[in-house]
Amino acid sequence: MIVVRKLVKRFGLKSVLRGLDFTVQSGEFVAILGPNGAGKTTFLRILATLSKPSLGEVSIAGFALPAQAAAVRRRLGVVTHLPLLYGDLTAEENLRFYGRLYGLTALNQRIAEVLKLVGLYERRADLVRTFSRGMQQRLAIGRAVLHDPEVILFDEPHTGLDQDACSMLDNVLRQVAARGRTVVMTSHDLMRVSELASRFDVLSNGVIVASAQRAQLAPDQLLAFYRQAVQQNNPLNPSLEGEPQKEGNDLP
Ligand SMILES: Nc1ncnc2c1ncn2[C@@H]1O[C@H](COP(=O)(O)OP(=O)(O)O)[C@@H](O)[C@H]1O
Ligand SMILES: [Mg+2]
């Protein structure tokens, strides 16, 4: 579903992605882990057609990026740090705008479904600029799944959400995965990721340095797997500054 070969992304003279290889089969749920500054957001933005590769090949659902970005975009549901919503429209109007863009039929019904899914149905007629950051994030998640996309790309989607909203998001992700959709998500929360993803990839110094299937890794081995992958590729930084935060008591 996603094929990336020798991807390089430079900002000026600085190479952030350095020959990254990455393949995702249809229906996989891949969590991308990595220290701050590893290039996770840069990588996801390229997959999301929001940024162009400097070198290398990227294709999604058989369409090459950046050349066939429009075809790819229709198949994607994206959540990034920016909610990309219209503040002067209501929650409902925002979804209607995107739904029309995607040419969805039975739109009113789908909008109501999605608003309930993300817990905003009661607030559907309120202007988005009156929403808290967490509520905007909820709506951004709703917008991303509105057209039931084949591929979900979520960058740190739990960030800024309260416990309720995190559970809602996990539900949405489980539903999406159960429908056989493909998910690529970055996260700082190893515990949440360990319960959701089917595969864990570690991005460090601009390449994927390790990959493990959930079936091969017990939840209590994930932190050790992550640490070892980062440390091996960061011999000068054994302090692991910026490692994903653990939450709860499940991890050692
Ligand atoms: N638009 C940009 N211009 C210059 N440098 C950038 C830009 N975007 C990201 N970077 C740099 O790329 C590196 C990786 O950033 P990012 O992809 O945001 O990392 P992560 O999401 O893993 O924390 C950082 O050093 C960051 O400063
Ligand atoms: Mg990031």
Structure description:
Strand 7, helix 6 (163-178) and strand 8 (182-186) form a beta-alpha-beta unit. The protein contains 8 helices and 10 strands. Strands 6-7-8-3-9-10 form a 6-stranded mixed β-sheet, with helices on both faces. Strands 2-1-4-5 form a 4-stranded antiparallel β-sheet. It has helices at residues 40-47, 69-74, 91-101, 107-117, 133-145, 163-178, 190-196, 222-232; strands spanning 2-11, 14-24, 29-33, 55-60, 63-65, 76-79, 151-155, 182-186, 199-204, 207-213. The two termini are 35 Å apart. It folds into 2 domains: 1-75 and 150-163 and 179-252, Rossmann fold (3-Layer(aba) Sandwich), CATH 3.40.50; 85-148, no CATH class. Helix content is 33%, strand content 25%. The protein is α/β, with parallel strands linked by helices. Bound molecules: adenosine-5'-diphosphate and magnesium ion. Adenosine-5'-diphosphate (ADP) binds next to helix 1.
- Strand tally is 10
Q: What is the CATH C level class of the largest domain, in words?
A: Alpha Beta
The helix count comes to 8
- Computed Rg: 18 Å
From the 3D coordinates, which CATH architecture of the largest domain would you assign?
3-Layer(aba) Sandwich
User: Which ligands appear in the coordinates?
Assistant: adenosine-5'-diphosphate, magnesium ion
> SSE order, as H and E?
EEEHEEHEHHHEHEHEEH
Please give the alpha-carbon distance between the first and last residues. 35 Å
- How many domains make up the coordinates? 2
What fraction strand?
15-25%
What is the helix fraction of residues, given as a range? 25-40%
Query: For this structure, what is the CATH homologous superfamily of the largest domain?
Result: P-loop containing nucleotide triphosphate hydrolases
General shape: globular
Largest sheet geometry: 6 strands, mixed
